[in-house]
Every structure is written in structure tokens, then in C-alpha cells.
UniProtKB/TrEMBL annotation:
Mn(2+) binds at residues 106, 128, 130, 132, 231, 233. This is Arginase. Binds 2 manganese ions per subunit. PROSITE patterns: ARGINASE_1 (PS01053), ARGINASE_2 (PS51409). Its EC number is 3.5.3.1.
Amino acid sequence: MTLDRPVRIIGAPSDYGANRRGVDMGPSAIRYAGLAEELEAMGLETTDEDDLPIPRAETRDPDVEQLRSGNAKFLRETREVCEALEARVADAIEAGMFPLVLGGDHSIAIGSLNGAGKNADVGAIWFDAHGDFNTPETSPSGNVHGMPLAAALGRGAFAEEPWASENRLREENVVYVGLRSVDDHERDAINASEMTAFTMSDIDERGIGPVVEDALDAATAGVDGIHVSFDMDWLDPNEAPGVGTPVRGGSSYREAHSALELVAERHASEGVLRSMELVEVNPILDSHNQTADLAVELAASALGKRIL
Ligand SMILES: NC(=[NH2+])NCCC[C@H](N)C(=O)O
Ligand SMILES: [Mn+2]
Ligand SMILES: [Mn+2]
């Protein structure tokens, strides 16, 4: 049941897209929590590349770049990071490996999605408290980690090259699971889009199993594979305190394992997984590396670890 290909860990310690420092230490914290050791213990061949080289934010000018009418901080830097990440993800897939990307804030998903969707039609499952579907025109914060899905789908100011580059991410195969914090403009944009959105209320009513099965059906229909984007703030802050934008009422520890076990099972039967990322771990805000430990456990479940 474990994943059918070697794993390549790719660290993307960017915090250009977040309001708070600290997520740049996410890859270190997740490695320290024993990610590679855990995957190897599962029998997975695992390589761990050097992190992407990312200059510290203090050495750069946030330069609220006026892209059309909007605002977004560190856009130029974010674009550089995401172009480099796109190449790494695409290379890993081409080499027959499974890219497991460690953030960093969620803006790095632009690179992951562009890489995963480079030569294939792809869907995505977005486990997140947030919609991350703002554009520079609608963002209340100017933080690009609230915009990666809009960027990868070429919305608003991101219609300009090379944000969505040539990715073949299909909007109708993008699926949210567990949304609970959405800005007003974002709500309108999500409702008007072709994406599918399951909120925490859907999980309350139906249970995690049926929701994730439906999400997998919608994400995988007619595509070559899917990218799983996992924002640690999807979990309740009691479980995952080490995140920059915590929101009450998130998924439980068991729901998170269960969701990712279902992803692994679908992969075992249909070979759907193409790439995954774990983002928004902020060790400064964490308690004894609890959130990074949890990220390791959840990666293992997604890649096929079982209790028995
Ligand atoms: N990846 C995240 N943690 N995103 C939080 C986004 C928060 C808010 N919606 C914003 O756009 O600023
Ligand atoms: Mn997010
Ligand atoms: Mn989030």
C-alpha cells in the first residue's frame, strides 16, 4: 500500500508570502521531526535535496508591486522562488519520483502547481482553513500566501505571464476540503468559479470520509493526476498551534489522518497522486515542534502508512 515510487523531498523555505516571520524554518522543523527517517522506515526510497536558495526577506524590499490595480508584497521574489520550485517539481516527476515539497508559506504552491501541471492535466485537493483565492486586486492583506490558487489559475492580475505559465491545472478539478475562513471577494470568486468547495460544515454534517471520497472523485475526474496541497492550518489550532494564521474549528487529529489515508487508498487503486506539499509550519509559534511532528505523521499517512 505504500507509495509506488521514490520520494524526493524539496525544501522551499520561503516566507515572502506570509505576514509573520518563521515559516522559513518550516522545512528544518519538519526534517528535525524525522520526515526522511519515517518514510524510509515505511520502505520508501527517499532523497532530500538542498533547499531552494531564498534570500532573507529583510534583505529585500517588500516593494508592494503595482500589478494592474492591485497590491501584493514581495511579488518579484515570490515569482523567483516559484519558478525555481516549478523546475524542481517537474524534474522530480519526470525522473519518476514523487515530489514532497516542504514550505514555507502557501505562496510556494504556485510553483508546485505549475510544476505538477507542466506536461499533464492535473487536479488539486486543497486542505486549508482558507480559500487562498485572492488576487492582488482583492487581497485584504497583500500577502501572497492568500493568493496561490488564483495565481496558478491565472486570475486577475495573475493573467499576466508567467504566473500560470503553461500549467494544465484544470479549474473544474480543483477541490477545497474544510474551508472555514474566506474573505468577501474570495467567497464571490469561489462561488462563481468551477471549483468544488467542501467546507467544515460539510464535514460536520456528512463526516470526513464521504467528503474526502467526493473530493477525490471531483479532483481526479478526467485528469492525469492530482496535487495535494496541505496547509497545516486546516487542522484545529489545538492540534497544530504552529501556524501563522490559525482559525478555530478545524479538523481533528483523527479526521486529518483519515482524510490522508483515503488519499493513499485512492492512489493505491487508481494511481492518482502526482505531488504533495506541506505548508505553513511556523516553529516560532509552535509548541515543542508539535506541528512539525504532526506534518511528518500526516505525510506518512498520505503515502500509505497504516496502523495495521
Ligand atoms: N495560506 C494562508 N495561510 N493563507 C491565509 C490567507 C488569509 C487571508 N485570506 C488573506 O488573503 O490575507
Ligand atoms: Mn493556505
Ligand atoms: Mn490556511
